[in-house]
Design brief:
The protein is α/β, with parallel strands linked by helices and 345 residues long. It has 14 helices and 7 strands. Helix 11 links the parallel strand 4 and strand 5. The protein is globular.
Length: 345
């Protein structure tokens, strides 16, 4: 009997020690200081997101849910990640759909012309999610060898080497922030960005290959199965008249037309959006906070006109969006004293 009790006590102590050790060593964000869209997803109540935006840093720098909330009461959320690859975009949507039922999902198509970086971006993708069949399938798709896949799935073989990276914050239970709703405001301007003087032909198409076309089709099928409207976007950015990029987007545009998917190329629509390429970017490929405000206002007006969405302002269940707007307005006041603070409604 005593041996059994000692054995049980040993298992309990070992479990507590390993649990605490894992909490200290575990990968804790997808980008930035405790600014993780996955963590915010896991800490958001069920069925609260009306609209979700998926993609790379072009998206988490370019779409500000605080603007959608302030102007229209739309509960938007950004499932973005640095250099987010196509597979990660797809599996982020799967993860989000476990707890949310958005009416609209925007997917940015930069993933068609940009590959996920090895190393840190793959770690962010595989280690930030809760362990599930979805995270395992993602790991199998983006990690090369069976041995490495097992390490990512078990996680311990990777995180146990992080001792030199440990900081004081890793030992303290810090509550993940609620601001941003996946957006990361950038408060500086790059005056050197210029839009191409002449847009390239919208008729020439690139051969995307089987894998990329399958990705587009899987997104379309998922939208049908789950009952949300899928919208493809290209966020404003300068790509130096690169014909290969433009032709890849043309192929996606043709696919969207064939499958009755709305396609919003915000480079082509830059004048309508009000984008100033010399004022609204933090660098050549990322919008700053002022550019994001214009894009978000444009998308909010588009949604208001094309989709029936409820205005949730005043509903206590959406308090996270109230807190996020309060935080954003505080940041705006500090970084742009000339801005008009307060609701536009």
């Amino acid at each position: 009997m005593k041996k059994w009790i000692r054995g049980l006590a040993f298992v309990c102590v070992l479990t507590l020690v390993l649990g605490r050790t894992y909490a200290i060593l575990s990968w804790k964000e997808t980008y930035g200081e405790y600014h993780s869209c996955i963590r915010q997803l896991y800490n958001t109540g069920d069925d609260l997101m009306d609209v979700v935006f998926v993609g790379t840093s072009h998206v988490f720098d370019g779409v500000n849910p605080a603007i959608l909330w302030e102007e229209y009461g739309i509960s938007g959320f950004v499932m973005g990640g640095s250099a987010q690859g196509r597979e990660l975009s797809y599996h982020y949507i799967i993860e989000m759909l476990k707890t949310q039922s958005p009416k609209v999902v925007f997917v940015d198509l930069y993933g068609l012309v940009n590959e996920m970086n090895p190393g840190a971006d793959i770690y962010r993708g595989t280690l930030s999610m809760k362990l599930s069949f979805n995270s395992i399938r993602l790991t199998q798709e983006i990690v090369d060898t069976k041995e490495e896949q097992l390490q990512h799935i078990l996680r311990w073989p990777i995180i146990h080497t992080r001792y030199r990276e440990i900081e004081e914050r890793n030992f303290v239970e810090i509550e993940y922030n609620t601001y941003g709703r996946g957006y990361d405001a950038q408060w500086w301007r790059d005056m050197s960005v210029h839009m191409s003087e002449e847009l390239l032909s919208d008729t020439v198409q690139a051969d995307l290959g089987e894998e990329k076309m399958e990705w587009l089709q899987n997104l379309a099928d998922l939208a049908t199965e789950e009952g949300f409207e899928l919208i493809f976007t290209i966020m404003p950015y300068y790509f130096e008249d690169n014909a290969d990029i433009w032709e890849s987007y043309n192929t996606a545009k043709a696919f969207a037309a064939q499958n009755e998917i709305v396609f919003l190329d915000l480079n082509v629509l830059a004048d309508e959006v009000g984008i100033d390429f010399e004022q609204d970017f933090r660098d050549s490929t990322h919008l700053n906070a002022w550019g994001a405000q214009k894009v978000s206002s444009y998308l909010g007006a588009f949604l208001k006109e094309h989709v029936e969405l409820e205005d949730h302002r005043g509903d206590d269940a959406y308090y996270l969006w109230d807190l996020n707007l309060e935080y954003y307005l505080s940041e705006l006041a500090q970084n742009d004293p000339s801005a008009q603070i307060g609701s536009t409604e």
